Amino acid sequence: MINEGEVLKVAGRDAITSFLRSRSVFELVRTSGKVVVFETNIPIQLAFYALLEHESAAAPLWDSSRREFIGLMTITDFVDILRHYHDEHGKTGAAIEVLASRSIAQVLEDANAGVHFKHAKEARSDGLGPLLSCGATGDYGGLIAVDADGSLYDACDAMRLNRRRFLPIVAPKDCGILAVVTHVEILEYFVATFREERRLFDQPIIELGIGTFDDVAYVSNTTPLRDVLELLCMRDISSVPVVDETGRVAALYGHADITFLATATDADSVVVNLSSSVADILQQRRTDEPLHTCSQHATLQSVFELFADVKFRRLVCLDDDCRPVGVISARDLLRYFLC
Fold this sequence. Notes:
Layout: H1 4-22, E1 38-39, H2 44-53, E2 58-63, E3 68-74, H3 75-88, H4 93-100, H5 104-109, E4 137-140, E5 143-147, H6 152-162, E6 166-170, E7 177-182, H7 183-193, E8 219-220, H8 225-235, E9 239-243, E10 249-254, H9 259-262, H10 267-275, H11 278-284, E11 293-295, H12 300-310, E12 314-318, E13 324-329, H13 330-335
Helix pairs in contact: 4-10
Pfam families: CBS
Keywords: CBS domain, Repeat
Organism: Aureococcus anophagefferens
């Protein structure tokens, strides 16, 4: 016979999967929300600063010559592209000034730089089209999106299959973009809306296989920022724990942290900042991704409760000596329920 723990595990996954299938993705759209869209012929640096000004993490890209969307540009795309120019075109301010003069389209056409647009059709190196789920998702030109009448499950599955952190919601009739959503926003809606009287989530998170507990990436206080950014790009992760000289977690560095750009006065100072230690950058930053931690023995229920309180993007799991042994993201939590 199946033991009680396994029965509760299956029941918990089934309950949340059913919830995700029953709710429309349109419920994530804010009535006062706005969507920033970039034409690909504008300078990429101008697009980056527009994202910051509008407090948007991502924006759809519109190719007016082809009259179609070709994907998304994110803040982290720009950071990775800047690092590429810094490393490949000479580690000087002049290389960064070259990037500042290029349009989004010109960067996309660069075979080595364009791949850093991870949400754009041109960035696909495998030659394959989008991997669509069976629900109301589609390929709108080069833009992988979900119809507003699709389910939350459709949205999560499309993000999983295509390794997307952002997903546009599209009006089915006119293909207008209503919003661009993330795993955090979907999970935030879930914890605020889902109701279940049974206690189905008391199993330890590590036993459920949620998150990364093998070969956990972390950096030390003295690691140069350029090496931290390279690690994030190589591992395809958005944040990494920073440990002190004793190996205990001290902070979390997020890929979207642009302090090294915000504090730079010119291209040469950007280069200097890239060579600075991550500890120096952390001391300068104005805003940050807060460090949230939990025990490696934490249950799924306690992780949900913590998310309800602090809306974390990434949760660092610690051993009894406060050393990082695992990382759980909002994406990991949602993927677990995609049966």
